[in-house]
């Protein structure tokens, strides 16, 4: 099992953090414990090995899909809390995520040395990747990216020897330190195939309290561990294109309230209970959420069996609104239409309350917009969907919300 290492935080600072997040009761006896569970006076951010890179990363990573240019306070606070693994992409916020980080580094040059910086390329071809990498370096006012991802891989054939050679050159030029890809579709297959390649340093995967129970996912995680690939989990709140009903949410919240933490924190803790997940990337666009998640990372409270059972009851009750990312099923049945992408966009709107992001992502599907609403294709996709999602109905709802806008 991998060992956690931790960044110390000033005790008074942490007390302020806990108070700000309203989480005093998370701390049994008003204190903390070290990695072995022994009492400790020092609140710290745990670190885990990131695969075989030799780098230790904080178990909480700051996702960059928010208005960073106007929220430097969040970045500053993240540094104070030891949340020094920052994740962005060339496409986030139309480039403003990267330029916002660049403005921050310009104001606080010492910060760059503390941050494990990740960004992503939407391009697959070497020339496109070089262009986007140089653009990211320029936007973020830095000479290097710690971990560079090919963005949103659905099939391992999207990368290959050309990616490997490109990465070797970029490493020689010291523009990147590590290479990998992110995936929220067909994750298990992509992970197993990545483990065979021998040159992937890290992956960012859709992974949550639901998926972590699946045998196929467990095997994929094991394959990555054996291959020395560092894993970062994303989308860990396990939301879907149909939001959970209020009763299910209330019941879940009630399971954790006695020990003073939220359902959102419980979902993070469930994922952290898998030691082969090095970090969770979480979108934390405000200080409240950053404080809340950091407190969950730093305290030593683990879920009890009863709490884990409550999470699994909730998973079963809300499964019919969740998209599991098995895009190979619905998208091949629908003639290659990006059905899973559409479900992800709806998830941003309905489970993550991110309408701006949802609208922007929907626009990226606009070249397929008319085909996406072909009832026959959607019926074929529905017939193979293991979650029994009402895809035709959901597509119609998406079109009513954003269709006119995307076509315009
Ligand atoms: S088959 Fe269903 S659950 Fe799987 S990706 Fe497609 S829509 Fe989501």
CATH topology of the largest domain: TIM Barrel
What is the distance, rounded to the nearest whole angstrom, between the alpha carbons of the first and last residues? 53 Å
Radius of gyration: 21 Å
Structural class: alpha/beta
Q: If strands are numbered along the chain, what order do they take across the biggest sheet?
A: 6-7-8-9-10-11-12-13
Which labels suit this protein?
408 residues, alpha/beta, 2 domains, three-stranded antiparallel β-sheet, 18 helices, globular, binds iron/sulfur cluster
Description:
Helix 2 packs parallel to helix 11, helix 10 packs across helix 11 and helix 15 crosses helix 18 (391-407). The protein folds into two domains: 5-314, Alpha-Beta Barrel (TIM Barrel), CATH 3.20.20; 323-407, no CATH class. The protein has helices at 11-21, 72-81, 96-107, 109-114, 126-139, 161-172, 187-197, 215-226, 246-257, 263-272, 287-298, 305-317, 327-333, 339-350, 355-364, 369-372, 375-384, 391-407; strands at 5-8, 32-33, 39-40, 44-49, 56-58, 60-63, 85-87, 116-121, 145-150, 176-183, 202-206, 230-234, 279-283. The longest helix has 17 residues, at 391-407. The protein has an eight-stranded parallel beta barrel, surrounded by six helices. By secondary structure, the protein is of the alpha/beta class. 48% of the residues lie in helices and 14% in strands. Strand 11 (202-206), helix 8 (215-226) and strand 12 form a beta-alpha-beta unit. Bound molecules: iron/sulfur cluster. Iron/sulfur cluster binds next to helix 13 and helix 14. Iron/sulfur cluster (SF4) binds at residues 323-327, 329-330, 339-340, 343, 385-387, 389, 391.
């Amino acid at each position: 099992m991998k060992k956690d290492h931790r960044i110390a935080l000033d005790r008074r600072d942490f007390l302020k953090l806990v108070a700000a997040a309203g989480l005093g009761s998370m701390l049994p006896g008003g204190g903390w414990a070290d990695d072995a569970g022994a009492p400790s006076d020092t609140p710290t951010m745990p670190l885990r090995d990131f695969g075989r890179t030799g780098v230790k990363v904080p178990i909480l990573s700051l996702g960059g899909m928010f208005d960073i240019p106007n929220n430097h306070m969040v970045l500053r606070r993240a540094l104070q809390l030891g949340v020094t693994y920052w994740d962005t992409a060339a496409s986030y916020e139309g480039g403003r995520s990267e330029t916002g980080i660049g403005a921050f580094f310009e104001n606080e040059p010492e910060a760059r040395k503390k941050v494990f910086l990740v960004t992503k390329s939407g391009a697959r071809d070497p020339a496109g990747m070089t262009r986007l990498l140089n653009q990211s370096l320029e936007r973020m006012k830095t000479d290097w990216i710690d971990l560079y991802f090919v963005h949103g891989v659905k099939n391992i054939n999207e990368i290959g020897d050309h990616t490997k050679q490109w990465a070797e050159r970029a490493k020689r030029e010291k523009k990147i330190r590590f290479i990998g890809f992110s995936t929220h579709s067909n994750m298990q297959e992509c992970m197993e195939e990545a483990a065979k390649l021998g040159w992937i340093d890290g992956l960012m995967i859709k992974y949550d309290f639901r998926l972590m129970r699946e045998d196929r996912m467990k095997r994929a995680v094991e394959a990555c561990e054996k291959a020395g690939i560092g894993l970062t989990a994303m989308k860990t709140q396990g939301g879907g294109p149909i939001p959970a009903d209020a009763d299910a949410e209330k019941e879940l919240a009630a399971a954790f309230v006695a020990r003073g933490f939220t359902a959102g924190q419980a979902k993070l803790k469930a994922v952290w209970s898998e030691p082969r997940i090095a970090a969770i990337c979480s979108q934390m666009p405000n200080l409240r959420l950053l404080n809340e998640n950091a407190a969950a990372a730093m305290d030593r409270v683990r879920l009890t069996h009863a709490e884990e059972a409550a999470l699994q009851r909730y998973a079963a009750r809300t499964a019919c609104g969740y998209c599991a990312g098995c895009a190979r099923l619905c998208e091949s049945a629908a003639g290659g239409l990006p059905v899973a992408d559409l479900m992800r966009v709806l998830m941003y709107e309905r489970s993550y309350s991110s309408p701006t992001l949802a609208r922007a992502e929907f626009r990226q599907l606009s070249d397929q917009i008319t085909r996406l609403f072909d009832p026959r294709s959607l019926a074929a996709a529905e017939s193979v969907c293991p979650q029994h999602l009402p895809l035709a109905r959901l597509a119609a709802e998406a079109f009513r919300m954003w269709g006119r806008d995307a076509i315009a």
